[in-house]
Each structure stands twice: as C-alpha cells, then as structure tokens.
Specification:
With about 140 residues, the chain is α+β, with helices and mostly antiparallel strands. The protein contains two helices and six strands; from the N terminus they run ββββββαα. The chain has a six-stranded antiparallel beta barrel with strand order 1-2-3-6-5-4. It starts with 16 loop residues before the first strand and ends in a 7-residue tail after the last helix.
C-alpha cells in the first residue's frame, strides 16, 4: 500500500490489548503498534500463524470492545513477535477507531490525574481532549 493511502493510529501504550486464539489460550496483554485501514499490527510474546483466527479485546471501554481478525503475517523480532491482522468485518474498523479515541481520552485522563494530583473524570477528560486533539486524529 502506498504511503498516501495508508495512515496509522498509534495506540496508547498504557491501554492494554488482549489477544487470544484456539491455539494460544493465554489471555495476554499486548502492545498495539498501528491501526490501519483494514487491520492492526501489535507486538506479542506468542507466535500466531498466518491464517489463524484471533480474538481482540480492549477492556478500557464499557462494554468491552471485541473483534475477530485473521493473522496475515507474523515476524520474530528479538524476544517477541510483530503480528499483522486483518479484521473480518468492515464495521469493525469504524468501531475500532472509536475505541482508539476512547483509549486516547483515557490515557489523557490518567496523565492529567498524575500531573495535577487530582482524579479527573472520563467525561471531563473527553471534554478537554476532543477540542484539543480530535482534529489531529488520523482518518481511516
């Protein structure tokens, strides 16, 4: 895919993404690297074979976000694997983008709470984050 048509959303590291499959039963926490048109890329300690169906869960949202995808590729990088998946349903991409915004708002809320020493509500964080950063959020 050429660079003009491909944009990524970086997932905040503080927000966990869990991946499971029939072959890997461990409900592991992973670090998302990119969300792109059609799928995502994440770092994982377990190998997942190309063609394998995986279940993605992000628990920071209520209700939790769940989606299924197919592993397109898996690369061994040092002590982990970098895995690319494609989503099975088109609607998942839009939902995933919304979840990513919620993750960024939650990350912002946590950062502000640490900086100020005062716990910030999710609603207040959203009201502050949206006008500051929503226009900079990549469109898929």
């Amino acid at each position: 895919m050429d660079s003009e048509s491909r944009q990524y959303i970086r997932h905040p590291i503080a927000i966990p993404l869990h991946v499971s499959s029939n072959k890997v039963q461990a409900y592991q926490q992973n670090q998302v690297k990119d969300l792109s048109h059609g799928g995502l890329c994440f770092a994982c300690e377990h190998h997942h074979a190309a063609g394998e169906t995986v279940k993605i869960t992000i628990s920071v949202c209520h209700p939790e976000f769940h989606a299924e995808g197919i592993v397109r590729w898996c690369k061994n990088i040092e002590d982990n694997y970098l895995i690319g998946i494609v989503f099975l349903e088109k609607d998942v991409l839009f939902a995933m983008r919304m979840v990513e915004q919620v993750c960024y708002i939650e990350d912002y809320r946590q950062q502000q709470s640490v900086l100020t020493g005062v716990e910030m509500s999710s609603e207040k964080a959203a009201l502050e984050w949206l006008p500051k950063y929503a226009s900079q959020f990549p469109k898929l």
